[in-house]
Each structure stands twice: as C-alpha cells, then as structure tokens.
Amino acid sequence: MTAAEEERSIAPAPILRIDGLTAHIAGQQVVEDVSFTVPATGITALLGRNGVGKTSTIKAIIGLIDRTGTVELDGVRVDREPTYKIIRSGVGYVPEDREVFSKLTVAENLRLAERDAAPRRQLVEELFPDLLARSGQMAGTLSGGQQQMVSLARALLNTNKILLVDEPTKGLAPKIVAEVAETLAEAAKTVPILLVEQNLQVVRQLAEGAVVLSGGRVVHTGNALDFLNDDGLTQRLLGVSTEAAHTEAAHTEAAHTASAQTPAPAEKGAAL
Amino acid sequence: MSTLVLLLFTGLGLGALYFLVAAGLSLIYGLMGVLNFAHGAFLTLGAFTGWEIARRTGGDNWWTFLLSLLVGAVAGALFAAFTEFVLIRRLYQRHIEQVLVTVGLSLAAVALFDGIWGTDPVFIQGPAWFKETTDILGARIPNDRFICIIAAVLVLLALVFFLKNTRYGMIIRAGVENRSMVTALGIDVRKAFTLVFTIGGAAAGLGGVLASHYFGYVSPLLGGSLLIFAFIVTVIGGLGSLTGAAVAAVAVAVLQQFANFYLGGTGDFVVVLALALVLLFRPSGLLGRTS
Amino acid sequence: MTTETDATETQDAHGATGGTPAGSRRRAANRGAAEGTHDGGRAPLRLTRGKVVGAAVGIAGVVLLILLPLLNLSLPGVLPGPTYTPGSLQLLAMCMLMAAAALTYHLLLGVAGLLSFGHALYFGAGVYGLAIILQNLDIPLLPAMGLTLLVVIVLAHVVGSISLKVSGIPFAMVTLAFAQAGSVVVGRNPEGITGGDEGLTLRTNNLPDFLVGVANTRNLYWLALAVLVAVFVIVTWVQSSRAGHVAAAVRENELRVRVLGLQPYLVKLLIFVVSAVLVCIIGMVFLLLQSGAVPRAVSADLTITLLVMVVLGGVGSRWGAVIGGVFYTILDQRLTTLANSDAIDALPEILRIPLSEPLFILGTLFILVVLFLPGGLTGAAQRLARRRTRRGGDRVQKSREILEEAA
Ligand SMILES: Nc1ncnc2c1ncn2[C@@H]1O[C@H](COP(=O)(O)OP(=O)(O)OP(=O)(O)O)[C@@H](O)[C@H]1O
Ligand SMILES: [Mg+2]
Fold first, then answer.
1. CA dihedral B145, B150, B153, B157 (to 10 degrees)
2. Which domain does C192 fall in, by range?
3. Could you give the number of structural domains in chain C?
4. Which of the 8 DSSP states describes residue A12?
5. So where are chain B's domains?
6. Is residue C45 part of a domain?
7. Measured between CB atoms, which of A64, A111, A115 is closest to B180?
8. How far apart are CA A196 and CA B180, in angstroms?
9. Which of A28, A57, A203 is the best mutation target for the ligand 1 pocket, counting ligand atoms within 8 Å of the beta carbon and taking the most?
10. What is the per-residue DSSP string for C64-91?
C-alpha cells in the first residue's frame, strides 16, 4: 500500500481530482468530505457496500445533486459549472440503472447523446452490432443488457477525458457481464474510467486503483488487487470475504466469462 | 339526430380551444414540473391583440382574421417567453415558487388588461362566413366551429411533427421522461424550457383569438375561465402527454355539451365528476405515466 | 445481482455485524424520526424565553384589540377614521377575519404541505350555506350555523378524500377544479337560491339584534377578534398535537412515516377537514359582517388571495399568516382608495392604468416577494434582527423547505 502511494506521487497529473466533496439528499448527508484522485490512465474502482454513497458521489461530481467541494477535471475546476457544461468539457456518464429514454428509439437515444462534431458512430456500431439492428425500436422495450449497451454507447460516442460508469453489470447475465467488462477494458485503452462495481470479479479483472467508501466517506485508497487480496480489509469494508472468489478466479482466469456470476456459498456464510 | 350532430360539433369546437390551452400546459408541466397559472393570461393577451388588429384594420375579412391569428400567437409567444426567461428561470427547480410567481403574474396581468381594455366584454366581428351555418346531416353548424377544429388539428399535427422530427423535439420528449439525464448528456435543457413556454404561449395566443370568435367577445376573464377546464383536461389526459391532452380535451368538451343539453345544464359538474372518477381509478390520467 | 451484492445486502438487512457509519447513521435517523413524533406531544410544555415573550406580546395585543372600539385613536393613512367609528371597525374586523382565514391556509400549506387551490370552496360554503339557510328556513342563527358546518364537514371529507389521491401540483389542480364547480353553481343560480352575480343579502329576521346594523359593528368586531384568537389557538394546538407532528414528518419524508406504520393519508385528510371547518366558520362571520354573500367568496381569486397572504407573511409561520392577512387587507383597501383619487387621475395613461389597478400592484408585489424575499415579511424581519443579534434566520430556510416539500 505504501508502495502504491509512492507510485501515485510520482505518477503523471490525475485526470480528476475531488477535494472535500460533500452532498446532501433530502436533508441527509450522503457524501461527506470525500477526496480522491483518478489517474489519467486505466480503470479506478469506486467500491463500498450498498448505500454508502457511491452513486451519490458520481452524481455530485457532475452536479446532478447539490454539493460543495472542489472538482477538478484535467486541471480545471468545474464545480461551479452546470451539469451540461461539465459533461461537455469531456465527461462520459453511464448512470446506474441505465436510464435510457424508454419512449425514444434506440437511434434517437444515441443521436441525443452526440455532442462531438464527428461522433464515433462507426465505433459504436462495431462494438454493439445488436443496436444497429434495433435502431428503430423503443429503448424501453429493450432487454436489460441491450439497454446497458445503449447507455454505454451514449458515453462512447464522444471523445471524453474520463468515463464515469456506475454499476454497468447490475442485473445482467454472466455472458453479458463478460461482454460489458470486455467493452470497458477496450475503452480503458484510450480513456480513464472511474468505475462503480459490485462484481468483484470484474473489479479484479479491470481495475488498477481502488477507492473504498463507507458511510459517505473515503475509508481506503490504493491498488485494487492489493485491496481485494487483503481478506481482512475487504471483510471489514465490503462485508465480504474475497478468499473464495480469488481462489476460484485463479482456476477460471482463462475462461473468465463463466465465473463472474457463479455464486459461492462460502461467501454468504462468511458474510453472516 | 341533428341535435346530436350540433352538440358534437359544438363540443369539438370547444374541445379545440381546450386543447390549444392544454397542449402548452401539459408540455410545460411535463418538461419542467411547472403548473402555469399565467397560461390564461397568455390566451387573453392573444385575444385582445387579435381584437386590436381586427379593430384597427377595420375589415371583417379573411386577411384581417388570419393576420389577427398570427399576431395573437406572436403576442402569446412573446409574453410566455418573457415569463420563462425573466421569472421562471430564476427559480430553477423550485417548483412551488415557480407556481406562485405565475399566480402573481396572472393576477397582475388580468388587472392590467382590466385597466387597458376595461372589465366589460368587447364584442368581436369576424368574416361574415363565421356567422353562417353549414348543413351536416340536417344540423346547422355555425361555421366558426370548423375554424376552431381545423386550427387545433393543424396545431396538433405541427406539434407532433416538431416533437418527432426535430432535435429540440427529441430533447423535449426525453426531458419529459427524465430531465436530469438530458443534462447529463451535455444538453442545456433550459433552452428547451424557453422553447416549450414559447410554443405553449403561441398556442394559447392562437386559442385566444379563436376563443374570441367562438364566444363572440373578449374579456379579461376569458383566459381564466378556459384555464380551469384546461387544467382538468391535462389531469385527465395525463400530465405531460400531448396526445392525452388532445383526447381529453375532446372528451371533456363533448361530455360537457351533452350534459348541458340533456342533463339540465350540469355540464361543468359532470366534468368535475369525470375528473374525480379518473383520479380514483387512474390517478396518473388516461395517458399519463403510470409510476 | 452478483454474489457480492447479495452478501452485503443480506448483511445489511440483518444488521448483524453492521457498524458501518452509514448503517448506523441511517438507523439513527430512523430512530430520530420515531422519537420526533413522540416528543412532539411534549413540545408545547417546553417554554423558551422567546415563547414567553411571544405569548406576553400576544396577550397584550389582544387586550388592546378588545379595548380598541372604546378608544379614540387615529391611524391616518391606514384607517379611514378614529378607531371607534364603524368604518374603521369594519376594516379592522375584515383584517382579523382574513388573518384567521390565512391561518387556516397556513394549516394546509405550512403544516401539511398541501398546496390547495380550492380553499375558497369551504369559505364560500360558510358564506352561502348560512345565507341560504337563513333565507329559506325559519331557524335561529346557531342551529343554522350548525347545519352549515355539517354540510361543510361532509363536503370536505368527500373532496379531500378524492383530491388527496394525488399530491403536489396535481393536488393543486384538482382542488381548483372542485372549487370551480362550487363557483359555477353559485354563478348559475339554480332556482334562484344563490342570487347569481348579484349575490344574496343577509336576511336578518332570525338574527339576534346585537349583530344587526351599523351601530352594532363593534359587536361584530369583537366577534371577529374572538374568531381570530380561537383560530390561532386551535391552529397552534393542531400543529403541536400528534397529528400535527405526523403531518410535518409526512411533509418531510412521507416514505419514512409510512415505514413507521402511520397513515399519512388519514392525517392529511384530518388536517384538510379541520382547516375547511375553520374557514367555514370564518366565512359565516364574514357573512354577518358584510351582511351579504357575493360570488367572490367562492372564487379561485379568494383562495389565491389567501395564498398570497401566507406567502407575503412567510410560509410556515403562524404570525406570518396573521401579518400577511392584515397587511394585504389594509393594502388592498388603501390601494383601492388611491386608485380612485384625483392624484392618480391626473397621471399620464402609462402610469395611471397600472396604478389604478390594486391587483396589479399586489400581484407585482407578490412576485417580488417570491423572487427576492424568501420567508416573506417575517423572514425579512428575522433577517434584520439577526443582523443585529447574529442569530436566528432559519425562518427563510424553513419556508424554502416547506415549499420544496409541497412540490
Ligand atoms: N433520492 C433519495 N432520497 C433519499 N435518500 C437517498 C436518495 N438517494 C440516495 N439516498 C440515500 O443516500 C445514500 C447513498 O445512496 P447511493 O445511491 O449513493 O448509494 P450507493 O453506494 O450507490 O449504493 P448501491 O450500491 O446500492 O447503488 C443511501 O443511504 C440512500 O438511501
Ligand atoms: Mg449506486
């Protein structure tokens, strides 16, 4: 962990710097004095149990909920800007629960998201051929997985400085989880990603850094694998033992597609 | 039979007026969550400016009428755009305060109309054809009904085309569904706010000119009385649904006419009763979002 | 759901090892809510210095108001003549009735978070109900009032239970529609019982003598004062009762109250009905004071006037409602006098037209208050006081929150 911190201090300037971020929803403080940075390359995971304020943190960053504190994107303070300007300055946002416009067609959903002069339609068509075939379909009638594709495609259409991706594998079948993970890995080659993810397999596979929240506060930052391999720490902060998961992961590393969703009975036992 | 047809067309004509008011109300509410009490004032302003045109150009001919429609719509649109830009925008996301401001505006505007044009109704003359009747299945339908119906259908078609085929239309439809996600795609949704207000105001202004011909007069209270039925129409049709507003406008107006004729002038009650029933059994309205 | 999610969820649900700050904070919040509704019952007993001073000022004010008809005070510019003259007493009584009516509206908006646009229906039912009964039945005043109240109780239950199916802005629209139906009936004048546009003149045959005639204006003044004090006490009591606290909790977070097993719907209905009954009583006294019923008493305009009063005074504040009611009534009266004055007549048209319309000025004033004076007059007063003593100032915040929660 100290090594990781050292590495961070000599690393190039972060793409996103959050300092003292605090947010309230319905009179309740849901994000408390959160500070962390996201490096300019790779995937950083934002972890924590249900309800600790991961989604709220992401929303606070782009101003979807009222907040105080500093948000610096690529060295420029954006926290005084309205949401749409923050997004236009180079943020791709993939919300929790997809939030596609259900009464708009797939094509309309995508067209709405285009903000670059030359949006990368080609790329999106290659990544999600399924969407091309369904471009005239109402997005509300798509399957959950297909909706997630639309949601990801909306962010990938434009050139971004960072992607904020909130639980992209929530409620998806193992095969789709793997596809989503693959897409994110591919995207991460060109753009840094802040990823909220409950599926620790996916985190293990993708993330380099990890920021862990508890009760609206940052309680741990460091290397993602180091964190996941520290059983005591994950037990304490996520309430889950990762031992079973990573031994299993070792077996199935090659065919990672299938393992992501396999329930491990030992985990539940351990958690209780 | 001829009474039936006459009632039907009178109802349709009135429904057309309700729709012209309700369309804007419903879109504004759907997109912005604002209940616009000043909408009636947009209509009244449209009616008075239309009347001024008719009075000044002196002609009860078609050109005067078309010009007054245009000027009424523009007046309503400008008033509405001003309202959004100067008053509503300052209170972004504060829905009740926004309602309060429109309440204050409607009080002030109606009082000002009183001061300028007087409290008594002023009577209006259209092209002579309006007062003639057309024979349909034995019923003699006053021609101004057709004008209202045609205008409302054209407005409906134009709105549907705009919503379906333009980028702003798309933004408005998306915003009605999930406004914050629209901003999270990097779109300045406030421009769409000004736009729906302007469109709503234009439709109301147009409705004002038509209403003045339908009723034969203009008064500062014209907008207020239509507004209340337009509220009922938007609730019954489902807040935010344009098609809902169209269907409910016709249903409410026709029901009102029939009840007035066959049930001894109880039209307004039957409408409120219908509202109560819809609320009891389908609180989100006929075509509203069921959530 | 991934395994990890399941595991954490299960654990959170059981709260077995819990202990995360978020978990405990949330539980603490819930406990707080539960306790909030409990210690609500004790709240009125806790006397702060502010409350004692407030009560003392209130009592002194009431004593002064009781004595007013016996005194010879002049307030030039505010009252038309010395305080013992019927004209001044009539205006003061009107102020007090409007203040009381604004208080009942405060009960809806400030306490239960209900933005009603149909409150005039119950005021009008009091005015017209009593006028019609006195006109057509040969019964004394009190039974006639009782009968009117009975009608209003039933009416408020029916309308309330339907309107409360929706909330926020749809609630506003629906209450407006119901009230409009009432207004339409009065305008239609079925079988000549409402008098249509002309309204009804109060038939005085069955009224006690001391309430009839200009000479007895001061009795009506005292009656209005009694109504205001009674309404203030009742509203205070409702607000600090269990129902009032549940209503406030519902306003803040309906879901949480439902989780606690309370019935937000019934509590809201109760407050809706109480407020309707009170405003109906005020309407009946209004009828006696005005010796007649006019269609404006059931119009949406009247509801809007009450709303304007409450907002002018400061949403969420009882004193705000009273001050708003008095301020508005006097201003309206003065502006009307001003509108007909020669000074205004001499102005060029562009100034004369707006200035000769009291509602134009009041509407504009209202807009300005909403835009620039959140918390209304009491909020502004508190801010001024705070600038001197560096404390308080939560009135503005409270008004904002109430309005946010009503949406
Ligand atoms: N609209 C809201 N109203 C009230 N409370 C809210 C609202 N949105 C979020 N919260 C509360 O804020 C806290 C943080 O929520 P948030 O959605 O950020 O959690 P999360 O970490 O994303 O959880 P999950 O893993 O389940 O997605 C939770 O306690 C939640 O109940
Ligand atoms: Mg979340």
1. -170
2. 60-72+79-406
3. 1
4. P
5. 2-254
6. no
7. A64
8. 20
9. A28
10. HHHHGGGS----TTTSSS-TTSHHHHHH
Chain C interface, best mutation among A198, A212, A214, A220, by max C CB count within 10 A: A198
At A76, phi and psi to the nearest 5? -115, 130
Q: Is the CB of residue B185 less than 8 Å away from at least one CB of chain A?
A: yes
Is C170 a domain residue? yes
What's the pLDDT tens digit per position in C206-221? 888 888 877 888 899 9
Paired with A22 in beta bridges are: A68
d(CA B101, CA C183): 24
Instruction: Report if residue C39 sits inside a domain.
Output: no
Nearest atom of ligand 1 to the alpha carbon of A213? 21
Most informative mutation of C8, C26, C30 for ligand 1 (most atoms within 8 A of CB): C26
Assigned superfamily of A2-90+160-229: P-loop containing nucleotide triphosphate hydrolases (3.40.50.300)
Whether pTM exceeds 0.80: yes
Q: For the segment C344-359, what is each residue's pLDDT rounded down to a tens digit?
A: 777 888 888 888 888 8
CATH number of the domain bearing residue C200: 1.10.3470
Q: Identify the residue whose tokens are 């609320």.
A: B279
Q: What is the ipTM of this complex?
A: 0.90
Q: In this structure, which amino acid lies at residue B32?
A: M
How far, in Å, CA of B46 to CA of B218, rounded? 10
Q: Quote the percentage of chain B above a pLDDT of 70.
A: 98
Please state which CATH number belongs to domain B2-254. 1.10.3470
Whole-number Cα distances in Å, B246 to A35, B141, B155: 52, 22, 11
Written as one letter, the residue type at A137 is Q
Indicate yes or no: CB of A263 within 8 angstroms of CB of C6: yes
Asked if residue A175 has pLDDT above 80, the reply is yes
Q: Whose CA is nearest to atom 25 of ligand 1?
A: A50
